[in-house]
Write a structure and sequence with these properties.
The chain has eleven helices and 13 strands. The protein has 290 residues and is of the alpha/beta class.
Length: 290
């Protein structure tokens, strides 16, 4: 039995489906019983639990061999850092007292850094907890989500422009589709813990290739059959722009720090146990624009 959290999101849903397709027994954790019905229909066991509900999460892990967890973002929170650290403490404490053989946690490129990484700081904190855990764990560190471009897709469709916080516009970075993250999480669970006996390991996930905002705009131009021009969002407007999307002041500041340090190449891979997603950019963009 594998327990999967985050199945109402992109990575958890793909991880759960990949395991079900492989013939594995799966239990999903959802907060809303209505959202669990689709997984019941697929043959999965369903546990109704909020990740902050310690008792319910413990019960969800009974009889499980492995599990996949993540720290949900809650981007409107004004105490984002402290609340994510509290959740990390609780989840790792639960895992430490469980009978799980292996746990995969969603982390991020740059989680080895202790400053200037914005929301990734919560994952750096999490990884330090995992390093001390007696349970065998894997931190899956993907790169920049290709799916993030979906937030500015209306501007491309309506105005022919692609606003970008990634700058300069011709700078290529590793971008990966969340479907590849979910597939990799499932594969890591199926593989089990590190073969060399390490209690904790890091797996870094890159995309099929590196892309720049110009590359994204070019792919969108093909998919939409219209010219799409990438434009750099001025850095002095970043926080206000993020907050227009309903992001809290604290998280907006964290995002600004993160993008600044992606752009100046502070947030990079350590090149540890590197894997690659297999979703081609044009295929991803075609699906995004459907």
């Amino acid at each position: 039995m594998y327990v999967i959290a985050g199945v109402t999101g992109n990575t958890g849903s793909v991880a759960a489906q990949t395991l079900i397709d492989a013939g594995e027994n799966v239990r999903v954790i959802v907060r809303n019983p209505e959202k669990g019905q689709i997984w019941k229909d697929k043959g999965a066991d369903v546990s109704i639990a909020d990740l902050f509900d310690e008792k319910a999460v413990r019960e969800a892990l009974i009889g499980a061999k492995g599990a996949y967890f993540l720290l949900p973002p809650e981007l409107s929170s004004e105490r984002f850092l402290s609340s994510r650290r509290e959740l990390a403490d609780q989840l790792v404490n639960i895992i430490n007292e469980s009978h799980l053989e292996h746990v995969v946690f969603l982390s991020s490129v740059g989680a080895q850094l202790d400053e200037k990484t914005g929301p990734i700081l919560t994952l750096a904190y999490l990884e330090k907890l995992l390093e001390k855990s007696p349970v065998k764990t894997t931190a899956l560190r993907p790169g920049y989500f290709l799916d993030n471009w979906g937030s500015v897709l209306p501007a491309a469709i309506n105005d022919g422009v692609l606003p970008s916080f990634l700058q300069p516009l011709d700078q290529k970075i590793d971008m990966v589709a969340t479907q590849d993250i979910g597939k990799t999480a499932a594969q890591l669970l199926l593989e089990g813990p590190a073969a060399d006996g390490q209690t904790h390991r890091v797996v870094e996930l890159k995309g099929q290739s590196q892309y720049s905002p110009h590359d994204i705009a070019q792919s969108l131009s093909k998919a939409l059959n219209k010219d799409i021009t990438p434009i750099a969002v001025p850095q002095n407007t970043w926080k206000d722009t993020f907050m227009q999307f309903g992001i809290s002041n604290e998280v907006a500041g964290l995002f600004a720090d993160m993008y600044e340090n992606i752009n100046n190449a502070t947030i990079v891979y350590e090149e540890i146990n590197v894997r690659h997603g297999d979703t081609p950019l044009d295929q991803f963009i075609q699906n995004l624009t459907k």
